[in-house]
Amino acid sequence: MAKPTHHLVDLTSTSDEDLTQTVISRQGSTIVSRYGDEIWNLAPYIAPRNTTEVRIVFSYRFRTGDRLTDSSNARLLASAKRFLYTRWRVASGKRGRPASATTLVANWTQIRKLIAWMIEEQLADFSQLTPDHCARFASSLVGTLQPSTIAGILSTITNYYELGDHLVDRIPEYPWNVESGGTTRLARHAHQSRLQGWSQAKTEVIPQRLMSRLVRTALDYVENRANSLLALRDQLAVHATRRLAQVKVAHRKSHPKGFSSIYATEAEYLQVKANHQSSKEERQLLAEHGYPSRPAASIELFHLRTACYIVCAAFSGMRDSELASLEVGCFIARKGFDGETLHWLRGTTYKLEHEPRPAEWMVPEVVGKAVAVATRLGEPVRAQGEKRIKALERAAKTRNLDEHVRAKIQLKLERARRNRNALMPIYHPSYGSVSLLGNETARKSLKAFAKMANMIVEQQDMDGVVNRDRIRPGEPWPLRTHEFRRTFAVYVARHVLGDIRYLREHFKHWSLDMTLYYARHDSGADRALINDILTERDELQSLIIQSWMHPHSNLSGVGGHRIAAFRNRGEVKTVRDMRDFCRKLGESVFIRGTGHSWCMASGNGCGGQGLYDAVRCTSCGEGVIDSTHIQFWKGIRQQQIDVLQCPDLGRPSRERSVDHLRKAERVLADLGAEVPPFKLPKKVRRAS
User: Fold this and answer.
1) pLDDT in tens, 559-585
2) CA gyration radius, the chain
3) Which residue positions does the secretion signal occupy (predicted)?
4) What is the residue range of 620's domain?
5) Which of 57, 222, 243, 278 fits a 20 to 30 Å CA distance from 128?
């Protein structure tokens, strides 16, 4: 990967004549874009492999029909180019470093909104912008875009102002009036670091019921259907090769000298013709596997690829760009420092990193099956990729190529080489190119998979949903790639709290001890992920404490009675934000879940015996039992009733069962469950 700022120069010392020829991007020794070009192609400097937006197109057509490259907009074009170039070269903002190429492309999309508004308002220079103009522009965005998108646009305007010393056409004063409200307040807060926490997060958490359905369907594809589908794929490939050969022979007999058609080449025509034919053997083969046609089987293969993506994403917490970085051989197993065998996915992380960094993500063993299936599934595509690399290498050696043509070939060759070992590649026959499953392709694939898996939202799934305009009962869950990471963090946090109710088998590898592997400085693990998990754990803990503080919340256990006494002590206390108050309370405790109670012991406590003897928690000063445990204590009560029905029950066992029964009934009474005391059966005298 090229170093983004090494080739950039100080524009203040560059003459106007040399400015247009200033190099923007290069691939090796080939210049890709220059300052004066209508398009800046930044592909050589964008690290994530699945990024599709790699160009800044200055000839973009606005809704009025104007283009920034029109002569009437020459000054705005010059100002926009200088801002973007400076933003790329000069350190600025809270991070104190230049923007990345990816950020630069995003900044162009954002500043373009302002430029379009300025053209409509007949403002020819940024120097004409006043805080009043900026406030009016901000107001024009309300109702058309999401608040977070608006904040990004207004933040870019602030960046433009802050770089004023390096610009010719600068914004004369700070663009946002402190006295103004509304969207300008949003702009002033746009540069503040985003608070991590459940209350701040906008990413949806996939509901437990739907996540269970999604992952179980994906696992069914990976574990039960993959071998049959891949065997069918291989058999169909043999038939396709034979069919194409037959079409070529027949075509050559009919047209020995060839003929012209609407297709670019004769080979393309023959391939299309062969694809529209099928033999009796093929149809029989498809019928044996339960498919009416080749397209139906192809759809199942697409679902299989998506299933591999889902399994990797759901059990690793990897971002979409990180999943796209996975290559053949990415699944590894090695012993940890405690001698236990752990499994990892090895890839690259990009977000929040100045440079791409190799990283690892801990996963359960089942992910290895998904990787193996994806490896086999992608073999034909990788073979096509190798053919494309060889063709591009031959084309690159052609003499007397135009600079722009050579640059295009070099960019395509570099991308093909980067994707040659990709775990989940996609072949595009129309272009002969290979891309990766991610971004838009992943979104479409996930949407189709969710529909196939019947992930229909029910009212019970709406708890905690952020965007209720996008997600509605009766409609399929609109699955997004970025939802997997936060959902993973929330579910692992629940597991760490002992509140796991979903696919326990696959989350058993996660415990608080696993944080050691992620926190060690000599580890290549993605440490940002464990921070996300612990943030979610802390937020879930604050929710638990908040439920305890509710005046009508029933609690049991000695610890629960202490909390109830504190809550009902008669002193009037007010807090501005109950959630924030509970977060602060949570800083002094660490709650663990046993399944039948919450444990707040900070020392040895019972030494963990309460995990196996639930009744011990009723008399423990560190144990709290709340309404989430009612069903468990009903189960304990019923178990003791069943035991007391045994005819050969001895006296010590009977006394123990009665003791456990009465304690369970006291807990249930404390929690408001209407359970009448069980009438003990009479003792059965044993015959002497």
Assistant:
1) 889 888 888 776 656 667 777 777 777
2) 32
3) none
4) 550-670
5) 57
